[in-house]
Structures are given as C-alpha cells and as structure tokens.
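thread from #wetlab-drylab

HS: before we spend reagent money on co-crystallization trials with 6-O-phosphono-beta-D-fructofuranose, can we at least see a predicted complex? here's what I'd submit
DV: go for it
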Amino acid sequence: MKRIGILTSGGDCPGMNAAIRAVVREALDKGLEICGFKRGFAGLIDNDFLKMDITSVGGILQRGGTILLTARYQKFKQTEAQRIALENIERNRLDALVVIGGDGSLCGAYALDKLGVSTIGIPASIDNDIYGTDMALGVDTALNNIVEVVDKIKVTATSHERTFIIEVMGRGSGYLALISAITTGAEAAIIPEVSYDLEKIAARIKEGYRRGKTNNLIIVAEGAGTSFEISRRLEKMAGIQSKITVLGHLQRGGSPTCFDRLLGSRFGTSAVEALVEGTSGKMVALVNREIKLMDYKEVFAKKKVFSKKLVQLAELLGR
Ligand code: F6P
C-alpha cells in the first residue's frame, strides 16, 4: 500500500477534522501518500483533491466542520457515478479510501468496496443512528450544544412560568432528543421510535403547574412531528400555550468536545492501521469503549436501537 484517499461526506459534524488529522498523520507515519478529496463523493467524481502533508492538518483538531468540505451527493447511488469514481481511483493509483460520514456515506463506501476498492468507514453523524458503534463522531458535541442552549431556555421559561417546545435534529432518530431531555430535566421527549400520548404529556404539565412548577420543557426530535403542530395541538387539547425554539444547524456547529476529539483521533488512526494490515470493507466502531471493526454487511443489515431503559429514565425523571 502506497497511496490512500480520504473524504468527508454527508452532513458535517464536529470531530471530522480530528479524524482527518489522525488519518493523515498515521498514514504519513506509515510512509503512505494521502490525497484529500473535496466535497465528499462529488470530489471523487470531479477528481478534485489535494495532496495532504503534515502541515495541511495543523491547527484543525479544535475546529468544527471539515476542512475537506462535504456534500450530500445523491448521484453516487447510481452505478455510472460509481464507475467514474473507480476510474479516478485507478488513475490516481489509490490503493484504498477512508470515508468519513453517516449511513448514506458509508453506503457509498460499501458500494466501492463491492467494486474492489479497499475502503474503511468512519461513522460520523450527530444522529447516532449508525448500527454497530456506541457513538458516532459529532454526537457528543451536538448533545453539549443542545444542553447549553436548553439550560438557557429554561432560565427564561422559569421566569415566565412557560412551557417550551424545543425541536432538535434527528430525522429518523430520537437519540439527541432523548438524551438531551434526560440531561436537561425536560418533562417530555417526543421521538420517532416511541409513540407518544400528547394527552398524557398535557396532564403531566398541568399537574406540574398545580404543584408549583415554574417551567415545562418538551424536546421533540424533528422526525417525530413538527414542534409547531405539537404546540397547536397542546393548546387546542388542553389550553396549554407554548413557545417554540427550533435549534437547527447550531447543533452541528462549534468546536468538538474532548470526547469527539479523542474519538476522531482513535477512529482515524485505527482506520489507517486496518488498511495497512490489509483489512477493508469495514467500519471502525466504538464498542464498550474499545475500537473495533464492523463489517459493512452487518452495519447495514441491522437497525440501531437504543436501550428502553433510557426511555424509562426520561419518563421517570421528567416529572
Ligand atoms: O444527518 C444529520 C442531520 O443533522 C440530521 O439530523 C438532519 O435532519 C440533517 O442532517 C439536516 O441535513 P442538512 O444539513 O443537509 O439540512
């Protein structure tokens, strides 16, 4: 193995730069050349890359986002796009590719692997919906971003004795909503994985006010229904007025936490080690605090589910 490529794809997340830095430094240490493709799979198709050296990853550990830029590139699902990528990989004499991204991006890596390209995937998505890894890159920072803002909302909610509905990211996954609800003391988490009963939530809010509670927080995952709709229903059904805050992309911004910097560093070095040892077709994963390698096949065959105990915890403590 002489030359490898790297790209970041899909939604950006804090910790991607830590992973890029680790891949580049580990690769250089192993005597490999490394090419960084810009804008994910789009750059692979356009053959848009830069040769990376020790200085190209200096000072990026604490920066959010990705220095390689990223894109959601739906075209890569098409065999024609994959064929062009394969041509560019051969033309640039790349022996392997490291793909950093969420499930869609790792699917792209899997497609290339099936075409004979050695690839290793690094799970990176604030949604934490990738099967096989306890945590994906960016999740911890996103949670800290959410908690910081919700704590602030709670201050003003308390002064006005208000109910707030806070919408967080997670199209198909309620992980961010559930964990942030537990860790901010929210009264309810509304998530796509669990059906919810708004009447029960309304009764809990009313009972809270009767007990002298001064605020109520409901955290909604975007995939579970819009906060505006929930707010309207709460008012119609129980006369409870609420304020709405949609956190949006601020959740993905900012400097990565210590956890994400370490995870990116461990994932990145492990990805290169695996390639050098001749392993491919796998995703690096955090399993019980250890870094493991998971077959793409397994990653895509199963759906990640989180412990029911977390749902019970949110239910029990949010009274
Ligand atoms: O996949 C991560 C994620 O942040 C989702 O939680 C969210 O629904 C989506 O990306 C937003 O995507 P975009 O930044 O392309 O609007």
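DV: The CA atoms of residues 13 and 81 lie 25 Å apart.
HS: ok that's useful, forwarding to the group
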